[in-house]
């Protein structure tokens, strides 16, 4: 059963999302919150698999709530997906850097919402390659700090290759095909790179790959 925490200051939106999620046999909404402060508290109390969190809220915004969840070892299993009205923007990129696994636009189609919750629960990033490129092109401007850059040099050649392919939006199966290895080995390369780079999930691995210069952003 996938346990979900809904966080938005609009009761109507929470009710709509709950109605969609609760009818599914494999999904259960375990709690709701109207601000980021309550979201963090409820995440600790219920340990959801997925937290759908609005970016802009009173008391504490979604970015700060995401950051607090991401740094808490007890909440390592909570995958945060940001909710936004505007698609990819500066807030979304800051949320990814804070530890979000991806983001959804609030007017998402019902079947896409269900798919997104299941993807996030598996620990995969909700970042399409085209969206990733636009985010990186627009918002990655700061160089990676020296400590992480040094760790990047500690990746093996195969791990670096796997990170590049993750940043280009490939799944583990697609990475395996490209590198001519088994899916399990591909997953191992990705996981080891995440550990070495201290990336919480694949979304942060994508951000690190671009910020470090391992993958070049395509500017237009």
Description:
Mean pLDDT is 83; it is low at 141-147. The chain has two domains: 2-126, Rossmann fold, CATH 3.40.50; 146-212, Winged helix-like DNA-binding domain superfamily/Winged helix DNA-binding domain (Arc Repressor Mutant, subunit A), CATH 1.10.10.10. Strands 2-1-3-4-5 form a five-stranded parallel β-sheet, sandwiched between helices. It has helices spanning 11-22, 36-46, 62-71, 90-98, 110-121, 129-139, 146-152, 157-167, 172-179, 183-197, 202-211; strands at residues 2-7, 27-33, 50-54, 79-84, 102-105. 53% of the residues lie in helices and 13% in strands. Helix 3 (62-71) links the parallel strand 3 and strand 4. Helix 2 runs parallel beside helix 3 (62-71) and helix 8 (157-167) crosses helix 10. The protein has 220 residues and is an alpha/beta fold. The radius of gyration is 17 Å and the shape is globular.
Rough outline: globular
Numbering strands along the chain, what is their spatial order in the largest sheet?
A: 2-1-3-4-5
Helical residues, percent: 40-55%
Strand content: 5-15%
Give the count of helical stretches. 11
Low-pLDDT stretches? 141-147
Number of strands: 5
CATH architecture of the largest domain: 3-Layer(aba) Sandwich
Mean pLDDT: 83
Number of domains: 2
The structure class reads alpha/beta
Brief summary:
This protein has 220 residues and is α/β, with parallel strands linked by helices.
Which descriptors apply to this entry?
phosphoprotein, 220 residues, Rossmann fold, globular, single chain, alpha/beta, 2 domains, Arc Repressor Mutant, subunit A, 5-stranded parallel β-sheet, CheY-like_superfamily, Two component transcriptional regulator, LuxR family, transcription regulation, DNA-binding
């Amino acid at each position: 059963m996938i346990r979900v925490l809904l966080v938005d200051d609009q009761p109507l939106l929470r009710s709509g999302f709950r109605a969609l999620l609760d009818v599914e046999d494999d999904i259960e909404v375990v709690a709701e919150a109207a601000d980021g402060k309550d979201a963090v508290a409820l995440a600790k109390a219920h340990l959801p698999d997925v937290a759908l969190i609005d970016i802009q809220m009173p008391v504490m915004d979604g970015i700060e709530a995401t950051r607090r969840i991401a740094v808490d070892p007890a909440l390592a299993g909570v995958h945060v997906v940001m909710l936004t009205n505007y698609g990819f923007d500066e807030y979304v990129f800051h949320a990814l850097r804070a530890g979000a696994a991806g983001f959804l636009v609030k007017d998402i189609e019902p079947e896409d919402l269900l798919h997104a919750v299941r993807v996030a629960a598996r620990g995969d990033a909700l970042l399409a390659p085209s969206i990733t490129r636009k985010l990186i092109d627009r918002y990655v401007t700061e160089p990676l700090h020296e400590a992480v850059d040094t760790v990047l040099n500690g990746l093996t050649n195969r791990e670096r290759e796997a990170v590049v392919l993750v940043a280009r939006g490939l799944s583990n199966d697609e990475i395996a095909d490209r590198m001519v290895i088994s899916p399990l080995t591909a997953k191992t390369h990705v996981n080891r790179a995440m550990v070495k780079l201290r990336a919480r999930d694949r979304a942060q691995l994508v951000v690190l790959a671009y910020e470090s210069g391992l993958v070049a952003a395509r500017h237009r």
